[in-house]
Design a protein that fits this description.
CATH class: Mainly Alpha
Number of domains: 1
Largest sheet: none
Strand content: under 5%
Shape: globular
Order of helices and strands: HHHHHH
CATH architecture: Orthogonal Bundle
Length: about 110
């Protein structure tokens, strides 16, 4: 099994590209275009992941999920949210029923 280092490297590259020339970097261009463009890409990649799943194409599911995760990392960078923050939240939820966890977020 692979470790998380590839996600950390990718997050670092995305962070570095925030200051890159948008004409030379897809990430810089996406970040420069703003949140709406990033969200549009996430919606697009989500839909493509769903369709790949419905079609049962394993390789395409992996490919589209990788695109979805990549664009999600771009969104995190847009909001200056670190990969560690996301992983800490997942760790916090580990071992907790999804039903219980969701209920804890809706009380208030």
């Amino acid at each position: 099994m692979n470790d998380l280092s590839v996600l950390y490297r990718l997050a670092q590259t995305i962070a570095e590209r925030k200051s890159a020339d948008p004409s030379h970097s897809y990430v810089a261009k996406l970040l420069h275009q703003g949140q709406d463009k990033i969200l549009k890409k996430i919606a697009e990649e989500s839909a493509e992941t769903i369709m790949a799943s419905k079609d049962g194409h394993t390789e395409q599911i992996v490919y589209e999920t990788a695109d979805l995760w990549f664009h999600s990392l771009v969104l995190l960078a847009h909001h200056d949210i670190s990969l560690d923050q996301l992983l800490q939240e997942l760790e916090r939820r580990e071992g907790t029923s999804g039903i219980t966890e969701k209920a804890s977020r809706t009380k208030g």
